[in-house]
Design goal:
mainly alpha, two-stranded antiparallel sheet, 3-stranded mixed beta sheet
Length: about 270
């Protein structure tokens, strides 16, 4: 496009901003997500992990836990198959809650609502959602969102605030980590973070031997179900079900190849609802 003199200062500002971001990355904490995107993460990993642990401990005290053996076996079977590919220790808890939701927190914590278990048709659909949630953790989206806030207004107090979920700041901090809906504060992940979690999740489920085609089936099912009533964690993608499904379609050949490898190496999860 022809650049008029008026647009030059704008272009220069943009140029300066890019330079500044590079400088910041170099000086501080730039990391790369599993999909290769550069991101700013100001907080130390162990700080974010301990925030995740604290938030999860609070949730376990506040929310009713479902102890149904079948539910728990099903969820654990799917989650364990996925986390085996990631490594580390993960705790999995089923919460008594009719909403179609699940979340994963830094520090290795996974929560699944009974509403989601009732909704999915099979192990592969549950693996889609849990894989997506683990994708947010692997891509450090909590840290990234906190860092954006730190850069603007809230300062280090966010870190302490997680321990006080009854306060406004505590609820903000917890929702930045990815479980805001529990407290009525919804801070959806950005569209970029959502797509990233979709792709990481689809690859992860395929590597664990689940059928990645079911990720598309699940989102189509959500779309049909969700007229006016989308699960909170996925609100940010509104009205982008189509984009989400298209992206997963486009990435399917790679995921199917990964699943093929997994099946050949004997990874054939058998998790029954
Ligand atoms: Zn998400």
């Amino acid at each position: 496009m022809y650049e008029t003199p008026e647009t030059l200062p704008k272009a220069m500002t943009k140029h300066l901003l890019i330079k500044l971001i590079f400088l910041l990355c170099w000086l501080t904490a730039c990391s790369t997500t599993p999909t290769g995107r550069s991101q700013l993460t100001f907080l130390f990993e162990h700080e974010v992990d301990s925030m995740g642990l604290q938030a999860f401990a609070n949730l376990k005290q506040e929310k009713p836990i479902n102890h149904d053996v079948k539910n728990n076996q099903f969820v654990r079977c799917v989650a364990d198959s996925l986390t085996r590919e990631v490594g580390g220790q993960w705790e999995v808890v089923v919460f008594e809650d009719k909403t179609l939701n699940a979340f994963a927190l830094p520090g290795g914590k996974i929560g699944v609502h009974t509403g989601l278990i009732a909704f999915v048709d099979n192990q592969d659909q549950l693996a889609t959602v849990i894989g997506h949630e683990i994708g947010h953790v692997l891509a450090k989206h909590g840290n990234e969102r906190m860092s954006q806030q730190l850069g603007t207004q809230l300062g280090v107090s966010l870190i302490q605030a997680v321990a006080a979920p009854q306060t406004q700041l505590g609820q903000t901090a917890i929702s930045l980590l990815g479980v805001g809906a529990q407290y009525g504060i919804i801070m959806p992940f950005s569209r970029l973070q959502e797509s990233e979690a979709d792709i990481i999740g689809q690859e992860l489920m395929a590597k664990a031997g689940f059928d990645p085609r079911q990720s598309i089936t699940l989102w189509q099912k959500m779309e049909r179900h969700g007229q006016g009533q989308q699960p909170a964690e996925f609100l940010s993608t509104h009205p982008a079900y189509d984009t989400r499904i298209q992206d997963l379609q486009a990435h399917l050949p790679k995921a199917l190849a990964l699943q093929q490898q997994a099946l050949l190496s004997g990874k054939t999860p058998q998790c029954h609802k």
